[in-house]
Design brief:
CATH superfamily of the largest domain: Outer membrane efflux proteins (OEP)
Strand content: 15-25%
CATH topology of the largest domain: Outer membrane efflux proteins (OEP)
Number of strands: 8
Helix content: 55-70%
CATH class of the largest domain: Mainly Alpha
Shape: elongated
Number of domains: 2
Amino acid sequence: MNKLFVSAFLLVSFSSFSQSALTLFEVVEIAKSNSIYAKRAETTKENRYWQYKTYQAGLLPQLSLNGNVPTFTKAYRGILQNDGTILYQNLNRNVAELNLSLTQVISKTGGAISLSSSLDRVDDFNKNTLVFGGDPISLGFNQPLFGFNSYKWEKRIEPLRYEESKREFVEEFEQISSIASSLFFDLLTAQISLQIANQNVMSNDTIYKIAQGRYRLGKIPENELLQLELSLMNSRQSVAQAELNLEITQLRLKSYLGFAKGENLQLVLPAELPEFDVNEDMALSMAKNNRSDAIAFKRRVFEAEREVNRAVGTSGLNANLAGSLGLTNQGSYVSQVYENPGNQLVAEIRFGIPIVDWGLQKAIKRTAEANLRLVEYTVQADSLTFEEEVFTQVRTFKMLRNQVAISQKADEISQKRYDISKNRYLIGKISITDLSLALTEKDRAKQDYLMSLGNFWAAYYRLRALTLYDFATEKLLYVP
């Protein structure tokens, strides 16, 4: 249902955005649905999903069929005789082999058991004979002794890695939201700056024309008229710069959203802020429960412990127990292989013990142990940084909310002050210096207000990314 809603929303937005203005919410949703970065995040998520499925499938029984059909030999080969000598004989034969096996790994022990059935056919063209042989059924096992069990560690690590990737996916989309928000305010600031620059041109042009009349009447000195003319020229230059900035910021936002370059965007100023309170302890709790970093801390320690276990398990005595038990037979026909088969038993223990390695195994173990301690200390430091980042972001968010209110009020006051100053200058109550100062403060206040708005929304999406929780709607952004 959500995908249908998003698709319908995008269809309407793409067809009408050049005629209607886009809100911040709409720009963020388009970025999360249509940008190349969203598609990259989706592909990464799919890739990690199939990586986890590969791990799970490896733990399930594996049924396989393999063989050689045929293996033809015509050559002289050395054949071992009963008395130990080698006799070269002319071989002219064909061998065909088939083996059907069902194998299951045992993750707790690191071994594997298998159930198999094999059939061989040997054609000896020199003797003009045909022989079939095989094992109708055979139960085999392979068990490492005292060694490293990779399955045990994969069972711990792989679920954590997959869970971590799912949370990273949500965090990536919140990062996309944050970038889209910043680009939104860059373009919005450029659009409003161009409006201000055009308004300043009209205002300065009006003042300059009035000043020309007053200069001809001798009411103002020439240097004041020249100052007004310079202000008019500067304001026209500001329009040219604002148009360039608008073109650049619009291209950046459209590229990020995946829009065509030839279409223009109009944006709506998000003047109203969502009303909600952010508790620091709750934010930290949400971050610890939801963020991928909390999972990554455990995974990193497990991976370091695994390397210590690998170093211990691959040094010293290394042994492997293997064997098989089943039925076997041979005959001139295929059916004879399965008639009254005899018992077959195979068992072996292979081992290896390093005698002199000049401290190699000891160095490997010490390195792994030192790396484990390093990872533990690093994770502790990263955990502290993690908590500090959340607390800092919460305080920053609260400060920025107050800053928006202050800068909005300052914008209103500076605009009103400029209007009053302009009227007072026209009736000769203040100097051109006071008027220029009022104009500068008006433009700066507007820019500060837009900047504070942009910083607030950037902090809002940053807070969402840090906690994977939306305090405005009181909803989790990630549900396991």
